[in-house]
Amino acid sequence: MTLAIRRATTADIPAILTLVRRVVPLMNTAGNYQWSADYPNEAVFQQDIIQQHLWVAELDGQLVGLAALTNDQDAEYAQADWDVSEKAVVTHRLAVEPAAQGQGVAAALLQKAEDLARVQGLHVLRVDTNSENQATQRLFPKLGYRFAGEITLAFRPGLRFFCYEKRLS
After folding, report:
1. What integer best gives the mean pLDDT of the chain?
2. Backbone region of residue 148 per phi and psi (left: phi > 0; alpha: psi in -120 to 50; beta: other values)
3. Strands of 124-130's sheet, edge to edge?
4. CA dist list (Å): 90 to 24, 53, 103
5. Which of 58, 152, 67, 163 is nearest to 114 (CA)?
6. What is the mean pLDDT of residues 53-69?
7. 0.85 surpassed by pTM
8. Which CATH superfamily groups domain 3-167?
9. What is the DSSP letter of 122?
């Protein structure tokens, strides 16, 4: 099996939306309402692609994961235990095809975030996840991220998010 990470293109949109349609019901069943039928949507991913922020993972040529890797830190990040004025690579919209979970896809996408940080001369990686997302809460510490507190996000009212940060040497 060959896992490849590359920038997403508009040609990937149908496969991205299919992946999201498969992931959202599983998230919701687990009590994780970070994503829904209307978020993230095609317009969100189109914007990610235009800004060259969206990366996809392909396993043997099939799209099995995605992540938006940006320098954007939501204003609410100031609630976390970190210096929000410090520039970072921030992982948003991390998702893995259910059938490919547990095969290192998320770790590979997070490694791409680390690679981008190094290229940009940055030493900090950040990510947030829904308080009900047990899988990412297990994964992030395994990859060297530390828990940096709990926040709320204005655009997802009623939900709680856990923040994680990794410092590169």
Report:
1. 96
2. alpha
3. 3-7, 54-59, 62-70, 89-96, 124-130, 161-167, 146-151
4. 21, 10, 22
5. 67
6. 98
7. yes
8. Gcn5-related N-acetyltransferase (GNAT) (3.40.630.30)
9. -
